[in-house]
Amino acid sequence: MTEKFVMLTFDLEEFDIPEEYGQTVSEYDQMNVTLSGMERLLKVLEKHQINATFFTTGNFARYNSSLIKKLAEKHEIASHAMYHSPTHDFKESDIEESMLVLKSITGKDVSGFRMPRLRSFDRSKLSGMGIRYSSSTNPTYLPGRYNSLDKNPLPAMQDGMMELPCSTVPVFRFPLFWLSFKNLPTGLYNSLCRITLNSRKNLMLYYHPWEFADIGDYKLPGYVKSPDGEKLTSKLELLIQSLLAQGATFVTCSKFIGN
């Protein structure tokens, strides 16, 4: 029987999404919201003995170096550039700077990269920086954000490295990203994940630790902030149980490309 791999990934970043909706959140609160969500998230991963990949901003890592060092003992730490804020003017040097910050904390080389907000950027130089894989493509159509229906929905070599696209349902290209996870009924979302895993033998799923914090008081659209906290944590646990029952093997991104 062909093995089925699930890459459970999290964008470990500052809670800056309120900036997209005109709300200012202090850097202290941005960090603490994410840390609150991480506390819940790590309990679930530990319970089921799952190794995940955390695409981490250099800025978050510098403020929370003890956490990152501890995470690296079991999980994979990959780059999410230096800053996540929509007001930050991204530069290629942000990637290299973040890699240096992460390596100085973990003592390990950084193999992967995910572009903040999956924005377009020049991928051609990533392999020259030592990046072995990127996960910066959501091969679907998201109104107001991007149209990537022309992108390959399967893991494939591109620009000298492996591209691990975020999973979409075969044929229909329905995205299985964080907003689908939050807003679809649990049974339906889990079923779409199982269908995709059976067909493609791999799943690349991505969420954010801050989603698992209590963010109901922030001025965000309902589809962004609800469900949150314990309710969303329970949904994640049900998803993991569903995939484990299907015979899935949870692996880090580096482990997957090694296979």
UniProtKB/TrEMBL annotation:
GO terms for biological process: carbohydrate metabolic process. GO terms for molecular function: hydrolase activity, acting on carbon-nitrogen (but not peptide) bonds. Pfam families: Polysacc_deac_1 (PF01522). It comes from the Bacteria. SUPFAM superfamilies: Glycoside hydrolase/deacetylase (SSF88713). Residues 3-120 form the NodB homology domain. InterPro entries: Glyco_hydro/deAcase_b/a-brl (IPR011330), NODB_dom (IPR002509). This is Polysaccharide deacetylase family protein.
